[in-house]
What does this fold into?
Amino acid sequence: MQVFKAALKAFFRHPIYLLVYVVWLSCMGLFMGMSVTDAPSEEYLERPNVAVINRDGGELSKGLASFVADNSVVVDIEDSERALQDAVMQERAHYVVIIPEGFSADFAKAAADGTTMPEVQTVVSTQSASVTMMDNLVNEYLNVSKTYSLALPDAGQDQIVKRTNTAMGHSVEVNVVQVAEAPPVSNAFLLYLQFASYTILLSIAVCSAVVMSRFGSEEISRRTGASPIPRLSANLQIAAASFVIMLVCWAFVSGLGLAVFGSKLVGVDASVIASGLLSLFVYSLFGLAFGFFVGQLTSNELVMNAASNIVGLVTSFLGGVWISLDLVGEPVATIAKFTPTYYYNEALHAAFDVSGGGFTSEVFVNLGVVCLFALTVFAIGLAISRIRAGKMGSWKGLSTKASLQSAA
Amino acid sequence: MHIVDVKNLVKRYDEKLALDHFNLQIETGEVFGLLGPNGSGKTTAINCILQLLTYDKGEIELFGKPMKPSSYDIKRRIGVVPQDIAVFEELTVRENIDYFCGLYITDSAQRRAMVDEAVAFVGLEDYVKYRPKKLSGGLKRRLNIACGIAHKPELIFFDEPTVAVDPQSRNSILEGIQRLNAEGATVVYTSHYMEEVEQICSRIMIMDRGESLASGTKDDLVRMISTGEKVEIEAPELPDGTLDALGGLDFVRRISHDGTTIHILCDNGPHNLANILAVLQERGVVFGRVYSEPPTLNDVFLEITGKELRD
Amino acid sequence: MWNTFKYTVLSIVRERGVVFWVILFPIILATLFNVMFKGMDEGAFELPMIPVAIVDASEGNAGDSFHTTMDALSDEKNGEALLAPTYVKNSDEAYRMLKSGETVGTITLDADGWPSLELSPGEGDVGVSMEQVKRTVLADVVDDYCRSRAAAEDIITNDPTALANPKVIDSFTERTEYTSALAITHSKTKEYVRYFYALLGFAALMAAMVGLTAVGAIQPNISPLGARRVVGGTGRSRMLVGAIAASWVISFSALLVAFAYIRFVLGVEFGGREGACVLGLAVAALMATSLGALIGAIPAIPYNAKSGVLTGLTCLLSLFAGLYGTPALRLADQIANDAPWAATINPAKQVTDLFYSLYVYTDMEPFFQTICVLLVITLVFSLAAALFMRRQRYASL
It folds into this structure.
């Protein structure tokens, strides 16, 4: 137990690592989690921020403007190029409708004469499905207006707009079906746990690498090698210390998540939350294995740090933490299946499934895959340490070869 | 039974032969010195004995039993003070000693007493709460020693424990080693400082290029070589022919006179000084003080290897 | 000074960890981004096929117009089928499909052929999920049908005479495009470029590793090497200038490499203003050097942990610059909107904005404003670092 105790003592004398990697990085997850608002489950529509710039005073223009306003989140933007660019820069408006001067009159005239219809201009800051749908709504309104313009050639535009508005007021009756008895898990908490795949990988890998590098240093490991503690036992004790550090990281991340998002989880079944935290625990095991692997490759703290960071970023992206995986191309989605984070996320989604989550077999299957990843990475690390020891022919190579020869 | 018995040890680093059929026998209770210049294979030999290094050929027995990497019962009886300071920067002086002692002794009450004793032994009582970073070079060396001896080993390897240490700390380290020996520990001591080895070792082995060149007590070694004593005689006025007459003696190797003193280097042999003085008296030379200095280990080394021991 | 410069450059370029972080890391990350966002760029706003169950309880011909619309929307010959409808017998069957995730919604036609819609509840996902898009599109499509039908029935009931005009009948089903996209920004906006700009912001902060290493190596209270150098014959300020100049040159070169890779190898657009980009990188490197000097000079942080502190800081500030995917980008925009000062003092966000403003704005003024903000940040960092470094002798080393 000496090695184990010394390892923990040595680690906890460096609170800066805990502070920077565990506390600090978990805060990143908090910010991410807090940035999403839980839409009420009845809210099924995704509407963009829209600005209407009405340079026309006509009835139709007013009607269109108010229709757009009713069906989107309206933001005010000044009518200048710079203001528009600012809005795009800051992503304040995803979609801007600019109604040109004389549009209402031109529309009525073109409908009557059968000539080309006038157009409104749009500015799209970020192309997305919701922007496309918003564009469709504008077209719908103007299409219906055109129908009324043709059908009621003698009516005034105010009349046409009124009838158009009435027709456009029709919308399908929508019910959101509750398929589960329990309330769904807060999106914020889910995102927090998803992002934790990055933070926990990084913090566990770096923290356990700190421990391993202390004992891996040539002087200490030689000195330990000369003692009656078997190498295997010393290594197991170091592993146990790393495991304790992993537990601390996991407990901290879990506790912080529950403390901050707990109020949003009221009413959620305890087993659902527990299975989410179990998923994080299993993923932490992968982090530990990865820390071991990196510790075998290098003892340079900067390199360990960078390697963990890159792998953390890559796997968290491929796990679908950055953007929804449906949105990336097929090849990327395929590559994603070769990362543990993907299965971690699958497990989380299964655990938080609205139609009955918790400890389902789907959760366990996915976590099993994560475990396999952890084992594989650990085995590769072990192989590397063996190969390196053999090559150096030095203190690490307490191999059978040496003892056989010394006995011969 | 030898406490350390190494036979025909061969160790290669790739092409370089680090140990060439190296033999070493150490008796229980002695302070054995391994003397050799840097790179002569002293540390390699110790690391092989401790099974930290693989080796190509040879047999190693400690306490009469073959030593293997898994000979934990043997390792438990050994103490090691490595050349490089092996301590945890994060742990205090006391915690470091406790850690290394704990690799051998599991009972913590027993260990507490041992750690106290080790702290007192190296005189670090005022520094137990310090981290190694705050210690001076000499104090760090002492900590390194305390970590190696706290568990009261029967056999202790000291690998150049005095490198880069001030004279005061060096003396206290050497005295400590003698005290450990007096308490019953067998000590294997490597150094490239011959004065230290002369001072504390009961037997000495001289190594170079991975080979054992000679071994024995200091007197054995000195007797082994053909170089004899250096004789200096204060004689301001020398009659003509005196130097030639002295140079004519068959045991005189070199002779010179710097105006006040005659310097004579002799071959190894009995009655050299008497014969010299007889020649002087015969010639009526008036002389003052006479010094005779026996050969040193450096002379031994110089004669065996053809180079100075130091660097 | 030249001597300090030369050996600072040599020692840093030979430090594997620094080279890894400052040069390799941005290149690896950029390559990854390229793979990720290529797929996103191609497939982002293509509307997906929406699986839907239809329960038809209409009587007689009342549902005909709806079926015609459905057929048109699911006709694969038409090129883009939007819906994949499955006709089911009863609502139980439809509910089962909804619950199992086979469909995202159920359309039920009443006796008169008017549809109503049942949707599955939102499931948590990062940012906007495809499920949410599908629900929105489905609701919109059905809404569209209802509105057109309402307009047509209104006219048929209240103004039957209008039906004499064939154009009116045609217009019931005719769809005219009334919108034309206008380019008001300097370049055509693509969202994914913002991730690359955020990456450059990240790389700029990471480049502070260089300044940190260089300054640590001349600070007597930070490293033994620093103590040794201070007792040399070269004046402290000359040595500092040499070290800082060397750090700047290395940081700038590293950022240039990353930029060149992103621009020319990966082909990411910077609004055709590469010259200004290089100026921006030079300023970013200056900021990085001053940040590195500041962290390197803070005596309270143990030397070994300094790189860790910098890494943590970089990750956190990059989060607020929008590096970590859609949620992070939204968060960054939200902060820029709600608390502009927080965005202003975030150097990662400022470097990111440097490139984004070149991309968005037609005039250069916002770019130069950002440059000025970065210079002010640099000045603040430098002054703070100088406060720590001005001491010549120390109570303990």
